[in-house]
Specification:
Shape: globular
CATH architecture: 3-Layer(aba) Sandwich
CATH class: Alpha Beta
Structural class: alpha/beta
Strand content: 15-25%
CATH topology: Rossmann fold
Radius of gyration: 18 Å
Number of helices: 10
Number of strands: 7
Number of domains: 1
CATH superfamily: NAD(P)-binding Rossmann-like Domain
Length: about 260
């Protein structure tokens, strides 16, 4: 029986790399994204590699669009073997530099509410033994200056995912949350362009090729008891330091390591 993988934000970046790799494993891919032209381009690229794929246009913050997309998937495929909730956005601003409440809510609505709403509509189609992967971030593990709402949203994804892991234990559905570091994606390039000058000046960030990150993440979605997936030496170091050092020491180290605005 054909295995079905549904991937939000699957038209580019990490989502597309995951689609490619799952497609090469025999999954039929369903791409969900906002831009129809990008969906079409992604489908064509997958088809050129003999990967069967289809796409539906929807915004993960739009209830009606998600409902319609989920109904289309249910009608056409009837089930999901691998659900990847990946669609996201990142804004780099100090809290007091936001100019409106709607701008302030954007990362929370896309990254956290979009994840929750997608899970609500699509997880009923997961079958026994299937997998659910949600994409958080290294900044879901820690708060970084200039990333306040993004960090809040991605931390919420981790805790939401842990709740679902326990809710789905009796269904034998494996739930994972990935916390990758920086990856060479269109979102990362936009993030760098939008950074305030103090953040650009002080950043010394290691960027991983997106196909390598996707491979590392999928390799760890292997049915074992592991829940939280980290990629990259920087994120692994953060996890290690947080486990062995008192919180006050960890804070001091991170304060020195991460950029922050300083007095003129």
């Amino acid at each position: 029986m054909t295995k079905i993988a549904v991937i939000t934000g699957g038209s580019s970046g990490l989502g597309f790399s995951i689609a490619e790799q799952l497609g090469s494993e025999g999954y039929q891919i369903v791409v969900l994204a906002r831009n129809q032209q990008r969906i079409d381009n992604a489908i064509n690229k997958l088809a050129s590699k003999d990967i069967k794929a289809k796409g539906f246009s929807c915004d993960v913050t739009n209830e009606q669009q998600l409902r319609e997309a989920s109904e289309s998937v249910k009608t056409e495929y009837g089930k999901i073997d691998f659900l990847v909730i990946n669609a996201g956005e990142v804004t780099t601003k100090l809290l007091n530099d936001y100019t409106s409440v709607s701008e302030l809510k954007k990362d929370l609505e896309i990254d956290l509410w979009g994840t929750i709403q997608t899970a609500y509509f699509f997880t009923p189609m997961l079958v026994e033994g299937s997998r659910l992967l949600m994409i958080s971030s290294g900044f879901g593990l820690i708060g970084g200056a200039g990333y306040s709402t993004y960090c809040a949203a991605k931390a919420g994804v981790i805790n939401f995912g842990e709740s679902l892991r326990r809710e789905f234990l009796y269904k034998n559905i494996n739930v994972y949350v990935a916390c990758p570091g920086d990856m060479d994606t269109p979102q990362y390039q936009n993030e760098i362009k939008g950074q305030p000058q103090w953040l650009k000046k002080d950043s010394a960030r290691k960027v991983m090729a997106v196909d390598i990150a996707a491979g590392k993440i999928l390799k760890k979605c292997n049915g074992k008891a592991r829940f939280l997936i980290v990629t990259g030496a920087d994120t692994n170091l953060l996890m290690f330091v947080s486990r062995i050092l008192p919180r006050t020491w960890t804070n001091r180290l991170i304060d020195m390591a991460l950029p922050r605005p300083l007095k003129d």
